[in-house]
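Question thread 4412

I'm putting together a teaching handout and wanted feedback from people who do this every day. The idea is simple: show students a protein as raw sequence, then show them the structure tokens that encode its fold, then repeat with a second protein so they can compare. Below is the first pair exactly as I plan to print it.
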Amino acid sequence: MTLQQRATRPRFTLHLSRFTFLLALIFPIAANAERTYSERVHEYILGNGMKVLLLEDHKAPVGVLQVWYRVGSRNEQVGKTGLSHVLEHMMFKGTEKFGPEEYSRIIQRNGGNENAFTAEDMTTYFATLASDRLGIAIELEADRMHNLQFAEEQFTPELDVVMEERRLRMDNTPTSALFETLSAVAYAAHPYQWPVIGWMNDLRLATRADALAYYKEHYSPGNAFAVVVGDFDTNAMLGMLEKFFGAVPRRPAPPPVLAVEPEQQGERRTILRRPAHLPFVAIAYHVPNLRSPDAHALEVLSEVLAGGKSARLYQDLVYERRLARSAAASYNMTSADPSLFYLYGQPLPGKPIATLEKELLAHVERLRTGSVTEAELTKAKNGIEAGFILAQDSLFYQGMLLGQYEIADSWKALDTYLPGVRAVTAADLRRVANSYLTADNRTVGVLEALPVPPGQVLSVQGASGGPVH
């Protein structure tokens, strides 16, 4: 499921005395969500080419700043994977003006919190503070956009931290290792084939010079945009952004990613044999992103399969037939380039992994023959819409949506999300299933569990065990 689908939708019983209170909370959120983002968001381009997106929301005296760089593992080169993530770590190591880790200490002293993440298509830095303190985060972010500096004695220990992170998250987590292997097999030409965190040997060989060169190439105003959401005045905020970010010199654009994944012409399979408590199976199909008219149908298809415990995969394979401890699906429509639609699951102890794979594929065949009922379709669409609308109460979530859509296409395309979902028909689901969920277009990855040696501790993947986008 995408970020838009992950909002919690708990089941609860309402007492009448609480009903009107909850309606008062929900209706303003829904009314706000019905206003298009194009009506609410102000876009500006600073003199150095940096785009800023401003969304006033006065529900609380809080603001969120997110700085999105159009650089991730997709922009790396063979032999130098993982540099985007390494640089994310190094961005906290100081500038000419602020010392190592001073960024985090300043934000914390001012009552805020901050963090960052790296993905295939972007690296994002964010901070949440009282709205009258947003200028502090803006100054810090603008400073490290062009004044980053770190010594070798800072780089080497931090690189060790990244390698240890890789050991924990990938090498010592069997299901993550399987998805890493699956991507490497599913993609023949596109850089989505390598992991965001990088291959271990590339990390071992990375140098301070590599990281600084990567920074100078990709961290520039024209390759970044800022999203600010919260309790502020748009004109005053624009002036503050112009003061700090507008002062950063313009630099040449980094080289574009030209790789295009060729059409897959036959099933691919990979088997990973390693110590694990239980086996796992994952099936991936090449699919388009939000720039395709089929994206919304694929989004609804994912919800039909895995939109909670009442959806098809969990209800059939986990609850009713007791074949699996987990079964789910995932689709990321906001990837910059066409990505993968996943089905995956883990059998209960004693249940054959081959049986679970067969049953997952049987669910695909049912979709291809058009077995989705109108009631099921309506339930899936309602679930998507409810999650989307209720999540608008989060300032951070609104910023994330704007950033994700801007990375993939344009933030304005966000206004097509609910209308696109509402327009999906059962025939659309059958059509996209037959177009993309085909045998020749799939890659199957199977984790065969070997005995875990005494004393070896394996990291535990989340309940769904799915891919990390």
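The second pair follows. I'd like the answer to focus on this one:
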Amino acid sequence: MEQREPEAPHPQTQHKTSFFGTASVVMIAFVLSRVSGLVREALLGSTFGASYALDAFRAAQRIPEMLYYLVAGGALASAFIPTFAAYLARGERRLAWQVASAITNLVLLVTVAASLVTALIAPWIVASVLAPGYDQPTQALTIPLLRWMLASTVIFGVSGLLMGILNANDHFLLPALAPSLYNLGILLGVVLLARRWGIHGVAVRGRRAARTEQH
């Protein structure tokens, strides 16, 4: 009796399996980021309490996040990712990487320039925009924290593009884990450096965690 070879899985079945696998990875990573975020906030609260140091840290975070969303976030959402994915879909990989290189250089230059300008006028920004109602010690602490964390604007800008590139190439695990790595960096800052450096240790570890996301 002739033995029949097993039939290959239908392409549509393979596509559905891949889709559900990807969705599961992203969902688990999302839950992990939320849980790590809650742990981060609880540990910050228990370590610094209702102190002016924590108020200064939260105020200093706003400008780097705003710069990232205005510069890198806009470039990602409106131009880069759809264009890059379209070139890949047409098989024009060389042109896709040329576009990726050009946009990365542009985002790097713009975020560096914006960070330098912000660092120079940090005292005015803190007094007029970030913490106009805070007392003098809080404002004085917010200024160096803001300058330290401006480096994360540059790092997040480039890492955001790298995450878009990975997603366009169907690699979803590392981009999905990026928020958890950021939270982990802040947690390590609280546990390892806060006793010696205070709130500055949290800012330093948060910046190093942003660097880790790029690798």
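Top answer:
Good format. For the second protein you could add a caption like this: The two ends are 56 Å apart (CA to CA). The chain has a mean pLDDT of 79.
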